[in-house]
Design goal:
mainly alpha, single chain, elongated
């Protein structure tokens, strides 16, 4: 998920700098920037991660073409998403509404629009109902 949303977020950060965190939605922004802004502001609502996220956004806004800062921002987002499954679900919905599809790639990757059961990619997993 972090890999999928980071390009939208970096587009918004490039357009607005750190103001992207508090700026109201800009109707004149292109779809990519607007989606990135909405995603980042939704993540920003989690007060427990604001400090680290703000630093990562600040670094990325000062050097928008720097791949290291983009990777740092992506890693920060990944940490936040790892700890908040409800946020992942909400962001997935935002992406779907915008017409963005997610593709799982890599060993044991899973992509699903809706899942009402267990998904296991581990070896020798035992699942009981």
């Amino acid at each position: 998920m972090a890999n999928e949303i980071t390009p939208y977020i970096t587009a918004a950060v490039s357009a607005y700098g750190t103001a992207v965190l508090t700026r109201t939605t800009d109707a004149s922004a292109d779809a990519t920037v607007s989606l990135g802004q909405r995603i980042l502001q939704r993540i920003w609502r989690r007060e427990d991660c604001r400090s680290d996220l703000e630093q990562a956004v600040n670094d990325a806004s000062e050097a928008p073409d720097d791949e290291d800062f983009q990777a740092s921002l992506r890693a920060q987002i990944k940490k936040i998403l790892r700890d908040d499954r409800a946020l992942v679900t909400e962001l997935t919905g935002m992406l779907a509404e915008a017409g963005v599809t997610l593709t799982a790639s890599g060993e044991r990757s899973v992509a699903t629009k809706v899942n009402s059961g267990v998904i296991s990619t581990g070896d020798n997993a035992t699942i009981q109902r």
